[in-house]
Design goal:
The protein contains 10 helices and 9 strands. It is an alpha/beta fold. The protein binds S-adenosylmethionine.
């Protein structure tokens, strides 16, 4: 599986986990049927395509040209632009909703990106951060999978991820000058099952993150423990994932 295939299917999976919260937020902000909607850091358009399919006028911006190409080949119908969210190639005051999903954790200066998102949004339009994780408050169980969790955090941090993004969203929105700010944490209802497909997908994600920092032998020591815990249904992996939305 190519990297783009892997990440695209991972983004689809994440988009399905966050759909319920997204629908809740969309109900709160009541958009018109043909709203102008922008996603910054759209990746393979997993979330953006939902808005496109419901008939809205959608634009996606991503800094990675190859993922946009992959997205078009996989029939995304949104207008996709290769650009940097820190300096959006778009005019002022156009969008009714400008959102991001698993973006700010990767950004050194998130307030600058939020200010750009605000600039291109109409007055009283909405800025939504649909999902941003807070890895520093993760729960991993049973032991020694807590060590695996800490290794993944170190590896993500080495790749430039801000591990406490979730808890900072509202403060960043205030610094951006937004009003009517709301925030929350995605619920985590789960059914216990011995799910080997889920175990394989979770393991592949963790392994890809860890490879950046750790030798293969050290990573593989945890593989059997992870699979055993997943298939017994006793693995708890909870990374609080925050959302926040506000008006310009
Ligand atoms: C974790 S992915 C999430 C993709 C998509 N939002 C989703 O949830 O399916 C983060 C995306 O943000 C993009 N990105 C990172 N920094 C960016 C920047 N400064 N401007 C625009 N896109 C950026 C990456 O290329 C990547 O596609």
């Amino acid at each position: 599986m190519s990297d783009y295939q892997f990440w695209s299917s991972r983004y689809k999976q994440q988009a399905s986990w966050t759909r319920q919260t997204r629908n809740f937020i969309i109900n709160q902000i009541s958009l018109s049927l043909q709203a102008n909607i922008l996603e910054v850091g759209c990746g393979s358009s997993a979330v953006l395509d939902e808005f496109t399919e419901s008939g809205q006028n959608t634009v996606g911006v991503d800094i990675d040209f190859q993922i946009l190409k992959y997205s078009i080949q996989n029939s995304s119908k949104a207008r996709l632009i290769n650009g940097d969210g820190l300096s959006l190639p778009l005019k002022n005051n156009f969008f009714d909703l400008c959102f991001c999903h698993y973006l700010l954790l990767w950004i050194d200066d998130p307030v600058r990106i939020l200010k750009e998102m605000s600039r291109v949004t109409k007055k009283s339009g909405w800025i939504c951060c649909f999902a941003e994780p807070d890895y520093l408050s993760r729960i991993d169980h049973p032991s020694p999978l807590d060590q695996l969790g800490q290794m993944q955090n170190s590896s993500l941090s080495t790749q430039g991820v801000n591990l406490s993004t979730g808890r900072k969203l509202t403060y960043w929105m205030m610094q951006t000058g937004l009003s009517n700010i709301h925030w929350g944490i995605l619920g985590s209802h789960q059914k216990v099952e011995n799910n080997t497909t889920n175990a394989a997908s979770e393991w592949e994600t963790i392994q890809r993150d860890l490879e950046v920092l750790y030798p293969e032998e050290e990573i593989l020591k945890f593989k059997e423990i992870e699979y055993k815990a997943q298939t017994q249904g006793i693995r708890i992996l909870f990374i609080p994932t925050f959302y926040a939305y506000a008006q310009k």
